[in-house]
Amino acid sequence: MKGYSIPPQLDGEINQLEKLIEKFKRGEITAVEVKAHRVPFGVYEQRESDTYMMRIRCVAGMISPLQLEKVAGIATQYGIRDIHITTRQELQIHYVKLEYLVAMIRQLKEIGLATRGGGGNTVRNIVAQEDAGINPLEEFDVSPYALALTSRMIAESDSWNLPRKFKIAFSGSSEDKGYATIADVGFIAKIKDGKKGFKVYAAGGLGAKSEVGKLLLEFIGADEVFAVTKALKNVFFKYGNRKNKHAARLRFLWQSLGDEEFRKKFQEEYKKNKQDEVLPLVIEEIESEGVSDKLLPEEPESVSDFTLWKGRYVKTQKQADFVSIMIPVELGFISSDQARKLGHFLAPFGDNVLRMTKNQNFLLRNIPKKYLGNIYNFLKDIFHGISRPTIYGKILSCAGAATCQLGICLSRQAAKAVMKDLGESGLNLDDAGDIKINISGCPNCCGQHLAADLGFSGKALRKEGRLYAAYNVFAGAVIYDGRTKFAEHVGEIAAKHMPAFVKDFLNIYLFKTKQYKNIQEYLLREGTKELKKLCLHYKGIPGFEEDKNFYFDWDADSLFSLAERRAGECSAGFFDLIQVDLNHIHETRKILAAEQTGETEKKKLLYDLIFYSCRMLLITRGIEPKNESEVFETFQKHFIDTGFIAVAFKELMTLALHKNYQTLLDRENDVSRFSKDVEALYENMDNSFNFKRPAPEFVTHESERVVSSKEKAADRPAVLKDLRGVVCPLNFVKTKIELSKLKPGDILEIWLDDGEPIENVPGSVKAEGHEIVERKKIGDHWSVIIEKKVT
């Protein structure tokens, strides 16, 4: 089986990366300069200091047994125990040391694999349905198109310098098992008048702001795949938003241009490609070599377990006398030793025998039925739980807060807790085998929670002033040509409730499986309503003194905190905290509007409306009030006295501070207007916590001092801020506030405590584009010198 073609310029690019790493080691360049080159090579920094994750391009999930064995050998050579299968059908190697990166990249290239394009603003790994070529319902095998398109795309220089990532997907039928309808560019195989071709979707994608793809072209000939992709890439390259990475994907470009203008620009590029006679893809069908004559069939070692395994994981192919076999890999992790043994064992079956799935499993293919005993005996000895119900192979999770810098919750640990509870539940899990459960550690959807039957995305909630790990709950996704819709939000639960929540939901569903064709029909008819009720049942948690366990995430040995979010991502959970108060505001307004409360309750509701409106934005000013009085006092100081909120509302602060409920009742309209003004102010806040209406200079903190002109001449910072004793993430917020007062190019020095503050804050500042000029330890604290970014 021939893989994708690695472009000849890759050697020079690897050499350049090597030189940059050497310069960094010598202190000649900054980590930021190295990052700009290593990320497009699919190399990301992990939470653990000086360790990296390396992502290997495996088009359509394809990898040969020899390649798998060699990848495992490379990992073992550098002391890496595990290999990870991703939701985009790639392999990842974690905990790689900087000094080993280039050597590993070169060794991978020798076996026909590249990491280039595994990250950054590049053409990413092209995915396809894992059973392409063997599915009885497919129009034709789309794998060769994914391979050929990859070879052409990664050979073009502009594929490495796009406004944002660019994802392409192929599906072999309207079932859309390759997720073409939620990709930047999606192709669904069609046959029209006996001619092979594709239906084309564009500008879809999962993320914090997910979008279903738009139908771009009803049908194109198969020979136009490259011309269409290149045209879309050109539109993206020319007009995409390079200033704001949060609004830079192709779907945002479609929104900003509008439907008509986007299609117009696409057609201009498409016609140009046709006029230039852009060569079509060269398609080489993927052949199966057959099994070695030396391999003898075996009898299964346990007939009863073999029969159970066969019924759950073995499927017939469209090729007579051949089967495919799913290998469930728990959360996508396989040890390097297991991977090496699997690759070695599969070698006699030929190259076209293995694919990786979006559910983070392995799919064996083209296995002659007579060798099922061989496969079973091998897997039973090497893998754990190969005969378990199939639902275990359909629970997936992103990396979560364990390694990912964006992670809020420990999503993998939550998934393991769910699996453990299911194993002890006594439920008939075979009847729940069609359910997909996807978990993301934050809203960014790397765990594809919006494409699941039951999805979860991590967030932070607060009870009585204490943070705890929680999840938004989603249900009812449909992925199908012309009918795709994302899962809808049905509620939120504490992380520690997830196993019981899932178990209760399955218990409800299993009583009704005979009434419905599948889980999707059940969710559409009544399941989402049941889930909303279940979320309400699991909404509350005990107080901290009653049960501290709820304030620890799964398998965590320290209290849940946003401070644990590693460098570069301190602000990941701030908006969640604001949203908590905003939800209280909306709920209080709803109750007041219903006009069904007594006078006493109404007084308290008006007080609550002021309280939550005041507290909502205090974190943007680095304030975490210790009591209710401080909420009103600090809000007045930072939002009314500075002119952000009308001075006419100052009296409300006094009334609330003294709990003058009767007067608040008399001024109900003023309370309502105040609350709406605060919400409007929030809507105008940018990602750096700045508001459109400029505030006067803040009163300088007593620990802040202006440095003398003599010190400035000696290249000392102009402003120093002492943040010792300030915990994460408030120290980061205070740093942002200080930077907002400075001009581009100005210098700020901050003092931070050892431990989490020095580990978190500099990276978060750097992630926002500012330069860390110097970082040094002074006694028991750290001095960090920051140059404000030049816009």
UniProtKB/TrEMBL annotation:
The keyword Chloroplast does not apply. One of its GO terms (molecular function) is oxidoreductase activity. Keywords: 4Fe-4S, Heme, Iron, Iron-sulfur, Metal-binding, Oxidoreductase. Pfam families: NIR_SIR, NIR_SIR_ferr, TusA. Residues 120-273, 396-538 form the Nitrite/sulphite reductase 4Fe-4S domain. It comes from the Bacteria. CDD domains: SirA_YedF_YeeD. Residues 722-788 form the UPF0033 domain. PROSITE patterns: NIR_SIR (PS00365). Residues 44-110, 316-380 form the Nitrite/Sulfite reductase ferredoxin-like domain. This is Sulfite reductase subunit beta (Hemoprotein). It comes from Candidatus Danuiimicrobium aquiferis.
